[in-house]
Structures are given as structure tokens and as C-alpha cells.
Amino acid sequence: MTAEAPTAVVTGASSGIGAATARALAAAGYHVILTARRKDRIEALAAELPHAEAYALDVTDRAAVDAFTAALGHRPSVDVLVNNAGGALGAEPVATGDPADWRAMYEVNVLGVLHMTQALLPALTASGEGTVVVLSSTAGHGTYEGGGGYVAAKHGAHVIAETLRLELCGEPVRVIEIAPGMVKTAEFATTRFRGDTDKAAKVYEGVDQPLTAEDVADTITWAITRPAHVNVDLLVVRPRAQASNTKVHRTT
């Protein structure tokens, strides 16, 4: 009899780091459950992978998260949760930032992590070797001008990971935080600047090889696939050209 593949739930799996992580975990032998709001995208991705399912989900909707959790009853276990759904909106200073943007960022980057983690924690614990991954950001560890709302939200995500690790000490669940620096994906900066592709391009202008979604997915997968007793508490990953949130080498 073939052993059942372990199950990994990936949020925000419709593009970027989430989609790349789903591919990497599937290649590592996981049955991957893809969640995101864009149903068509995750269904197309699930069709490409050897063992995958797609489930349309908004992580900021607690009722929807609870319904999703109930629907996982067909799986023998839930072994991994990758809290990847997130994002940034705007780059205005604190003095003029839109409170609606700040609220939206808090909802997805902080409360989305809370909803998913609370809902799946019983199953992750019952698996005997559960893993919670929180994808934060270097923004969760250092401030920069124009990033107030996003920085505040990612600090919140970092604090969830740090606190949960303390609270779960002695339980069979690891809490891993991956904090990427500059990652060039198709949507992150464009979404942040509300579709302004010129502003989005300037973020990466002159930077030799910013991280890719695949770089971060590889890092996440490496951390998850360590032996169960090994907890990678916090892993900060940046491109070589970036020394900090405010010091980036640019060739032009």
C-alpha cells in the first residue's frame, strides 16, 4: 500500500510566491491544496500538478475559512500551512496614508494569518508533525519611508509567528517565519502602485538579480522539509544586491 502524501495548504497561491511554493511542494511529494480568491488561476495551476486541489478562498473572511476547514475532512491529515496571502497598497508617508489601505493590509497580512492558523491548528497538531509557515517580510523587521502601513502589517505577522512559537512549545507543531527582501514578481509592486507599471518598474531599476518567486519558494520548501525536530525559527532572505531595506546597490 502506498503511503498517503502529506497535505500542504498554501494561501495566495494564484500567482507569485504562492504559486511557486505550490509547485515546489508538489515536486517535493506533497498533496497541495491551493487557495486564493482567483478561482480560475488556482484551478489551472492545480491541473498542472500531480497531486493538487483548488479551493477559492478569501482569508479575510472567517466564515469562509471555517467552511474551508470543514471541507478538508476528506484528507487523512493536514501537515503544513503556508500563510502566504498578503500584499502592499500604496507608498504614501504616514501623514497622508489612506486608512482604508492600512486596514486592507492589516486584514490580509495579519488577520488572514490569524484566521487560517486558528482554523487549521487542531488538524496540524493532530498530524503529529505539523508546520505553520508565516511569510512575513524584511518589512516586518525594519522600517522604511513610505512603507508605514505595510511595515506595520508585516510586523504584526512577525509577532504572530514569534508568539505562536512560544505558546506551542511542547506541542508537535513547528512555526517557521520566512522574511524575504526584494522579490521581483509580476504583481507585487504593480498592485502596490495601483497598476502604475512605471512606478513598479522603478522599484527594481538597476538592481542586479532581485530575488524571484522561485528563490523564495525554494527557501520555504527547504525549511519545511527539514526533519520534524528542526525548527527554522526565522530565515531572512535577500538578493545579494540588497544589504537592508534602505541600502540597495543599483548599477544605474
Please sum up the structure shown:
The chain has 252 residues and is α/β, with parallel strands linked by helices. It is built from eight helices and nine strands.
From the alpha carbons, calculate the radius of gyration and give it in angstroms. Answer: 18 Å
- Poorly predicted residue ranges: none
Reported for the largest beta sheet, the result is: 7 strands, parallel
Helix content: 40-55%
* Overall mean pLDDT: 96
Structural class: alpha/beta
* Count of individual helical segments: 8
First CA to last CA: what distance? 59 Å
Q: Enumerate the strands of the largest sheet in spatial order, edge to edge or round the barrel.
A: 3-2-1-4-5-6-7
The share of residues in extended strands comes to 15-25%
Q: N-to-C SSE series?
A: EHEHEHEHEHEHHHEEE
In total, the number of strands is 9
* Morphology: globular
Describe this structure in words.
This protein is an alpha/beta fold and 252 residues long. The protein has helices at residues 16-27, 39-48, 62-71, 99-126, 148-167, 188-192, 197-204, 213-224, and strands at residues 7-10, 31-36, 52-56, 80-83, 130-135, 173-180, 234-237, 242-244, 247-248. The strands form two sheets. It has a seven-stranded parallel β-sheet with strand order 3-2-1-4-5-6-7, sandwiched between helices. Helix 3 (62-71) packs parallel to helix 4 and helix 4 packs parallel to helix 5. The longest helix has 28 residues, at 99-126. The mean pLDDT is 96.
